[in-house]
TrEMBL record:
Annotated segments matching region Disordered: 16-40
Record keywords, A-Z: Membrane, Transmembrane, Transmembrane helix
TM region positions: 76-106
Domain of life: Eukaryota
Protein name as catalogued: SAYSvFN domain-containing protein
Domain SAYSvFN: 78-142
Record field: compositional bias (Basic and acidic residues): 16-27
Alphabetical list of PANTHER family matching this protein: SAYSVFN DOMAIN-CONTAINING PROTEIN 1
Length: 147
């Protein structure tokens, strides 16, 4: 029983040390962030709003999302008729699979110039989006490691 109590006390001491260390690191980060904010303010960026593009959406240019060649009800009607003809010709599954592929292709969005993709491999220098989860983050969380 004495070993268990001793181990529990050691565990609590280690946890307390880790907690104080994390608090100190958090305070250091706050100080660094405050210093960086002061530096940015000193540089006098235009209106101090150089990062507004992250929080505010830009106006969508006309015709950006309007790529419709055919109205939706007409497209559904054409699809149903095509599917019925394909089933009649014993190619219903093939038509369905091909239509899924075409539907997926037609609904992939087009990015504006400078807009980042959700997949980092398609971005310049393989940049990740802010807040995206990586394998390193997942591994660290699974192993409960702190870096």
């Amino acid at each position: 029983m004495g070993d268990v109590l001793r181990n529990l006390q050691e565990f609590r001491k280690e946890k307390e040390k880790e907690r104080t260390k994390l608090e100190q690191e958090h305070e250091k980060k706050k100080k660094v962030e405050k210093a960086e904010e002061e530096k940015i303010a000193e540089k006098k960026m235009p209106n101090g709003k150089e990062w507004d593009f992250l929080t505010k959406s830009e106006p969508v240019p006309e015709g950006y999302e309007e790529r419709k060649w055919v109205s939706t009800p007409l497209a559904i009607g054409i699809y149903v008729i095509g599917q019925a003809l394909a089933v009649w010709a014993h190619f219903g599954c093939v038509f369905f699979i091909l239509s899924l592929i075409l539907f997926t292709y037609w609904n992939t969005g087009r990015r504006r110039h400078g807009e980042m993709s959700a997949y980092s491999v398609f971005n310049d220098n393989c940049e990740r989006l802010a807040g995206s989860m990586t394998a390193e983050h997942f591994e660290r969380d699974m192993l409960r490691q702190r870096r």
